[in-house]
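Dehydrogenase, pasting as requested.
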Amino acid sequence: MSLAGKVAIITGAARGIGYAVAKRFVVDGAKVILADLDEKAGLVAEEQLRELGDATFVHCNVAERLDVRNLVAEALDTYGEIDVLVNNAGIVAGGDFLTLKEEDFDTVMSVNIKGAFLCSQTVAKHFVEKVENGGVPGCIINMSSINSVVAIPEQVGYCVSKGAMNQLTKVSALSLAPYGIRVNGIGPGSINTELMAAVNSDETKRKRVLSRTPMGRVGEPSEIAGIAAFLASADASYITGQTIFADGGRLPLNYTVPVES
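Structure tokens follow.
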């Protein structure tokens, strides 16, 4: 699944799944724009990935249209083209349905779904122009979650935003299909990122996660990156409008499974 010569923008690329996707893309031969709001972590990621290939950090708040326009412009100025967009940037804000503050809900929705919309629309306009000029269609990959299907009562904004992400994937895939532009999503389950650190350090929480995971383990960011590499490659040329769930078998589960101590 070579990505040699392709140019990819990956949002939220400074750490976690976004960084893993960026690393996989660079190793597979892509030139990568690392977009993130955390400038310090983004520059560290850039330095690390430049030891493997071609990567450039761009500071960006995906919830701001001007930032997104500047991101796309900088990608084109740096590499001359864009072939892949990975909408990975996302945040969480805890709060029960009855007590969640309006501003917290707005903030999560603004980054997680408005940000994906702004990035998708801006990059898609470039993709369409490229196709109309005889170029090869690009593709978009949206990072969803199993919480787009199931739900956590204390993560109202996150769950709602990821449900919306699945619909964004479908509607944009249908809109862009006539141009040959593909849009797909990935729905991770429990993945071994910084967000999972508190769970891994608490035996009760760890067992709770594993009890609903038939494969009996937490996933690795590299496993999500592998799916992204596939969806960005020519091997996925007839796949669009789909969300692939990588959750160790959690979604089909109708009961809990025993967990070894």
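Note for the archive: The chain has one domain: 7-189+219-246.
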